């Protein structure tokens, strides 16, 4: 991931340093009149010559880009009359604009946010990838300038109003408005009736992973031992040999996992790593390590959403360790649960129509949750995360399947994400051990260790009083926090980002086990235990809370007693070969 800041119609570019952490390899700046384009580069493709901004032949078109264009070689072949200055995958954007005008964005296969300035008429366009894998914000200042930034902190102090730039959209200065460029069939939430072909689904996902092996720097995979990350690791390990990356950096895959000592993810991750033969790096953290990082996490992730902060903290700690090993890119498993209905609350979907509509709602909201977490947790340390489940072609294949096949039916042996598990259940050449392939879904914030969430709740109890909660609706009328943990995060967020526009960029509403507010109505009991943890799904999760909302395996009172005595410690590192 890189960092971009564009100020169009102003005399100031000084805020670029606020996103410098995203791109430690190079700082680029371009000025044309009162337009500034600044770029902080994390060099993944063509590190030697791909510095930004990028230009067309006569430098009349200027582009600053955050992301990766996986089909750049094919796009170059469509532009035989154009001369490219670098080997960067993003170099095609200026030339595509010359050839096709504003209508080229759907030709890009990748994750991206970019600002393109046409100096011939001082017009500009801004675009964000289909799902919102890369982060992007747009703001307007009182002096009439338009600001674009990869993060809130690049513009929040300078704009009168700002908001999240919507995924799959393009902003044109000529029209002064946003328009959607990404219009897949599933977006309308029409119920599909396509057949389920396990081999078609398997090949589509393998293709999505393989195209993300495009890199000129050391990389690895995030491996929690859950289904999604394990499939990513398995496919990567199978296809790494013979790639350009393998020739440069070796054919043995590196894998990374984080968790509290003895956590479910650490155990499962090591087992999968041993099965695949990866060089496995296991990072340990304590509850206190995580608590000590909360303020930094909220500053970098730019949210007060409870489940996002819970999951971002271990990922934030792990990313720092990964970067210290010289790795600059990782492949991760985000997006599968949204596409296939993998969250445990999908067990209660009343019918296939509601099941499908909920998956559509979840995919549309990914940019506010898991994409935001994966992008900013890693970018905080100059690390890039790639997510093959959110490949455009793969989503089209997966979302065209009749949702009847995705429905969870225990009497037929169909657990969550059954269609994906079945697609990779190969007896002749197994991708994974059977019990891993059919391991129950663990949300990342649960899988790193159940005491992590319990410890966060206990810590919030020490800092938020009952009296404070009585006034929560008056202090925070928008997205009012109804738990002490949520109130604690909100106080920290407001200190960093006090503007009304900032708090409006964060989603709200009731949720159980990461559901949308609409799906909460699927079970009357859920409204009594609105917790985003998967353990809130009683009678489904194997380590569920009891009906009073307490975890069945550990109690919060004991944790509260221990919190004052916890000592801050260095995150442990164990490397397994």
From TrEMBL:
Entry keyword set: Amino-acid biosynthesis, Asparagine biosynthesis, ATP-binding, Glutamine amidotransferase, Ligase, Nucleotide-binding
InterPro entries: Asn_synth_AEB (IPR006426), Asn_synthase (IPR001962), Asn_Synthetase (IPR050795), AsnB_N (IPR033738), GATase_2_dom (IPR017932), Ntn_hydrolases_N (IPR029055), Rossmann-like_a/b/a_fold (IPR014729)
Organism: Malus domestica
Protein name: Asparagine synthetase [glutamine-hydrolyzing]
Active site annotation, chain numbering: 2
Higher taxonomy: Eukaryota, Viridiplantae, Streptophyta, Embryophyta, Tracheophyta
Residues holding ATP: 222, 258, 332-333
CDD domains for the chain: Asn_synthase_B_C, AsnB
Superkingdom of origin: Eukaryota
Enzyme class name: ligase
EC number: 6.3.5.4
The keyword Hydrolase is annotated on this UniProt entry: no
One CC-aspect GO term: cytosol
Stored Gene3D superfamilies: Glutamine Phosphoribosylpyrophosphate, subunit 1, domain 1, HUPs
Site (Important for beta-aspartyl-AMP intermediate formation): 334
GO MF, one example: ATP binding
Domain Glutamine amidotransferase type-2: residue ranges: 2-176
Functional pathway: Amino-acid biosynthesis; L-asparagine biosynthesis; L-asparagine from L-aspartate (L-Gln route): step 1/1
Swiss-Prot/TrEMBL GO biological process terms: asparagine biosynthetic process; response to stress
Pfam families: Asn_synthase, GATase_7
Residues at which L-glutamine binds: 89
Entries under PANTHER family matching the protein: ASPARAGINE SYNTHETASE, ASPARAGINE SYNTHETASE [GLUTAMINE-HYDROLYZING] 1
Catalytic activity as recorded in UniProt: L-aspartate + L-glutamine + ATP + H2O = L-asparagine + L-glutamate + AMP + diphosphate + H(+)
